[in-house]
Write a structure and sequence with these properties.
By secondary structure, this protein is α/β, with parallel strands linked by helices. It has 10 helices and 8 strands. A hairpin with a 2-residue loop joins strand 7 and strand 8.
């Protein structure tokens, strides 16, 4: 199947049902990938990510996604970037069943690669984990149900539907980040830059995800935040470490690494120490003054 923009091509590589491994019970329900719904979810995630970055709707590299049969409990997604005919193309292999956050993370990763590699010639960019994780968590927290479409589960007459119930009490996408980081300290810049296996243990995975989401959100709040983040992504293929590209893109805000570390330490402390629901609006602030 081909998406409406022409960027995504979906291939169904699953073996016949009789030859597949039997499904096992899983503590968390997995997303079942079907081409007709996957192609729509890909476009929606792309549009949401580009809207957050104000990146427009243009694209350069095609993304070819294959759905394959599950081969084991630890079956993971794979992304391969290859340069053909003067431009980069991407091949993604997805297991037919995977966690929703894993699916979103894979799509965000390949979309960031496509953005970064538009000007790359010799080597593909390396996307820092905090960036892909931060943007993934931001999208899931703000509008997950709108982006990821599961196959229909109910038959109503001649129609197949999936009922979805949305409850919106707090529009703040950082609600879960506040809950987690109030109980456990956020990660330092060094821990975000070079995550260790301990960061993705059961106890620390959520802390890393929340710290990455907060770091990304605070960067977007800066003056010309989206413009600078796009410039940072575009500079990634030119350097072998993301810190050099980052300081080049954010030179107006952070003259050196130490300035960035101080800024992040202050933002982390300020974020946890205030209640966003008690902040005044611009009009209320003017009246108080």
């Amino acid at each position: 199947m081909r998406s409406v923009s022409g960027q995504f091509h979906i291939y169904d590589r699953r073996v016949p049902t009789a030859l597949r491994l039997p499904e096992r019970a899983d503590p968390q329900p997995l997303l079942i990938l079907e081409p007709t719904f996957l192609v729509v979810s890909c476009e929606r995630i792309k549009q949401a990510l580009h809207a957050d970055l104000e990146a427009g709707r243009d694209w350069s590299g095609g993304i070819h996604i294959s759905i394959r049969s599950v081969q084991g409990r630890q079956d993971a997604a794979q992304i391969n970037a290859e340069r053909l005919g003067g431009r980069w193309n991407y091949r993604v292999e997805l297991p037919e069943r995977m966690a929703r956050d894993q699916f979103a993370r894979t799509l965000v990763q390949v979309l960031l690669l496509e953005l970064a590699n538009r000007s790359a010639v010799d080597r593909s960019a390396e996307i820092p984990l905090w960036l892909s994780e931060g943007l993934t968590q931001q999208l899931l927290a703000s509008r997950e149900a709108e982006l990821i479409l599961p196959p229909p589960t109910l038959s109503v007459g001649a129609m197949l539907v999936t009922p979805t119930q949305l409850e919106k009490r707090d529009p703040d996408a950082l609600t879960n980040v506040r809950r987690v980081l109030r109980d456990q300290p956020g990660l330092t810049l060094a821990e975000l830059s070079w995550p260790t296996p301990e960061n993705y243990s059961r106890n620390q995975a959520e802390v890393f995800q929340c710290s990455a989401q907060l770091f990304t959100a605070e960067l977007l709040r800066l003056k010309r935040g989206r413009e600078n983040l796009r410039r940072f992504i575009a500079l990634l293929p030119e350097f072998y470490n993301w810190q050099t590209a980052f300081l080049r893109a954010y030179q107006d805000h952070f003259p050196n690494q130490l300035a960035l570390e101080k800024w992040w330490a202050l933002q982390s402390a300020y974020f946890v120490g205030r209640d966003h629901q008690q902040l005044w609006t611009m009009e209320e602030s003017a009246q108080k003054l």
